[in-house]
C-alpha cells in the first residue's frame, strides 16, 4: 500500500521543471510539483506527497493531523518512510 505523506517544501530546486525539495519526517527528497503547476507553492508550504509527486497543497494543521493519523498505522507508515528514503528524482 502507498500512502500520501505530508511534506514541507524546503526549497524550489528547479522551478522550470516543477521540482522541489521536501522534508518528510526528517528525510529530504526532491519531488515533482508538476501536478500543482496551477497553484503557487513556496518554501514553508505543506504538500501531500505520493510516489514522488505533490498531490495537493495542505495547511500546517492538516499536515500535523495527517502525520499523526498515519503514524498510528505502524508498519505501513515506517514502510512508506523507508520507501521515501530510497526514492529519488534525477
Radius of gyration: 12 Å
Percentage of residues assigned to helices: 25-40%
- Ranges where pLDDT stays below 50 over 5 or more residues in a row are none
Question: Gap between N and C termini, in Å?
Answer: 24 Å
Reported by name, the CATH topology is SH3 type barrels
Number of domains: 1
Broad CATH class: Mainly Beta
At CATH level 2, the architecture is Roll
Using the alpha-carbon principal axes, give the shape. Answer: globular
Structural class: alpha+beta
pLDDT averaged residue by residue? 86
Q: How many alpha or pi helices?
A: 2
Write the element-wise H/E pattern from the N-terminal end onward: EEEEEHH
Describe the strand arrangement of the main beta sheet, using strand numbers: 3-2-1-4-5
By DSSP, the count of extended strands is 5
Main sheet summary:
5 strands, antiparallel
Strand content: 35-45%
Write up this protein:
The chain is α+β, with helices and mostly antiparallel strands. The chain has a single domain (5-86), classed as Roll (SH3 type barrels). It contains two helices and five strands, in the order E-E-E-E-E-H-H.
Write out key terms for the chains shown:
5-stranded antiparallel beta sheet; 90 residues; SH3 type barrels; 37% strand; alpha+beta; 2 helices
Task: Briefly summarize what is shown.
This protein is of the alpha+beta class. Helix content is 27%, strand content 37%. The chain has a single domain, classed as SH3 type barrels.
